[in-house]
Amino acid sequence: MIVNRKILTLDEFTIQQMRQFPSATGELSSLLRDIGLAAKRVNVEVNKAGLVDILGDAGSVNVQGEDVKKLDIYANNQFMGVLQHGISCAGIGSEELDDFVVFDDEISNNSKYVVQFDPLDGSGNIDVNISIGTIFSVYRRISKPGVPCTKEDFLQPGNRQVAAGYIIYGSSTMYVYATKRGVNGFTLDPAIGEFCLSHPDIKCPPSGKVYSVNHGNFFQYNEHIREYINVCQKKDKTNGGPYTQRYIGSMVADVHRNLMKGGIFMYPGTTDKPGGKLRLLYECNPFAFIVEMAGGRATDGKQRIMDIQPTELHQRTPFFVGSVDMMDELDTYLEKIK
Ligand code: AHG
Ligand code: MN
Ligand code: MN
User: Fold this and answer.
1) Degrees (nearest 5) of the Cα angle 87, 88, 90?
2) Residues 100, 162: one domain?
3) Which of 206, 208, 181 is nearest to 295 (CA)?
4) Can you give the residue range of the structural domain that contains 236?
5) Is residue 230 part of a domain?
6) Would you say residue 78 lies in a domain?
7) Is 198 exposed, middle or buried (0-12, 13-18, 19+ CB in 10 A)?
8) Per-residue pLDDT tens for 187-215?
9) From the alpha carbon of 120, which atom of ligand 1 is closest?
10) Torsion region of 195: left, alpha or beta (phi above 0 gives left; psi -120 to 50 gives alpha)
11) The dihedral of CA 326, 268, 287, 123: what is its sign?
12) Residue 133: its pLDDT value, please?
């Protein structure tokens, strides 16, 4: 019988990938599928966020701020739960938890990977129905399997990631992940509750028309970054423009759009926050990995994001990421910063 199957589900795809490596243990595939399960659960709750607001107005006690916070914690618990109960993850780091969590049970202690994640990115946008996301990063542990994982397993530079990805809860829900073999995107088909391969082998266009930055901070940026932003605003047909400014305030949504269509996203340091706002381990490193695997680049303004040696779980960094030609042009301004 000929089965006409054009679209692969996430499970089918990861298994197919694994079958190309007879020596693979399947742990990474299993981990990526576990994350997909948590994402589906979070997606259901994210879609109800407006409903929670209506109930709140009808007399329930919670103010919206508490609901938003609950969803962050809910997402954290879902991702932590699937990883803890799966067979691949020895411990996690999360934006919502003060410290790393070592699972420390027999199966987890024998697992190969540690995962760091931002369970809900752009969560300030939940109550206004704007796309939000989840970001994650996977490392092979350095410590020997058989014992609990250690802090060193988590504090590895981004260039040691084995996989990274994000889920965007948007007009449709998408799961995008990268390994050294490439970047693939899956769209949730609500009819069957499965992520289906919709964007195989994603490549970031070398150039685009979009620049994304918080203009409200303009006068707090270094003068050469302001100079570059001015250049973006002055582009015309003669030099690759005109450019469009797009900034949603959910990095997942902003970088996803730029990854698909070409563009540059910037969160520089400011006079108030010289180290920037975004977190190295679970926001910048995963996106740096994904965008580089798709052909783009990511820096902190001085060096490649993925070459930074982390020193703590929640450390922040300035972040510039996007299409390779646009990043090269930005570099000519960043190089002027002493
Ligand atoms: P989170 O919701 O996980 O705290 O992250 C929000 C981040 C990021 O998604 C976004 O790009 C940035 O904060 C927006 O910050 P500003 O409002 O300062 O521009
Ligand atoms: Mn975030
Ligand atoms: Mn978050």
Assistant:
1) 105
2) yes
3) 206
4) 210-334
5) yes
6) yes
7) middle
8) 999 999 999 999 999 999 999 999 999 99
9) 3
10) beta
11) negative
12) 97
Give one DSSP letter per residue of 192-221, joined into a string. TTEEEEEE-S----S--SEEE--GGGGGGS
Q: Is the CB of 72 under 6 A from ligand 1?
A: no
Pair 272, 305 in one domain: yes
pLDDT in tens, 104-149: 999 999 999 999 999 999 988 887 889 999 999 999 999 999 999 9
Q: Which residue's CA is the closest to the ligand 1 atom numbered 2? A: 122
Judge contact between 113 and 31, C-beta under 8 A: yes
pTM (two decimals): 0.94
Bond prior to 242 in cis (omega within 30° of 0): yes
pLDDT tier at 3, thresholds 50, 70, 90: low
Q: What angle do CA 159, 162, 168 make, to 5 degrees?
A: 100
- Compute the distance from residue 290 Cα to the ligand 3 centre, in Å: 18
Q: How far apart are the first and last CA of the chain?
A: 67
Q: Report how far ligand 1's centroid is from the alpha carbon of 40 (Å).
A: 23
Say whether pLDDT at 56 is over 70.
Answer: no
Cα 121 to ligand 3 centroid, rounded to whole Å: 4
Strand 113-121 and strand 89-94: the pairing is parallel
- SS3 percent helix, strand, coil of the chain, rounded to 5, is 40, 25, 35
Q: Kindly state the tokens that stand for 136.
A: 């994650």
Helix (H, G, I), strand (E, B), or coil: what is residue 322? strand
Distance from Cα 278 to the centre of ligand 1, integer Å: 7
Residue 3 domain-assigned (yes or no) = no
DSSP state, 26? S
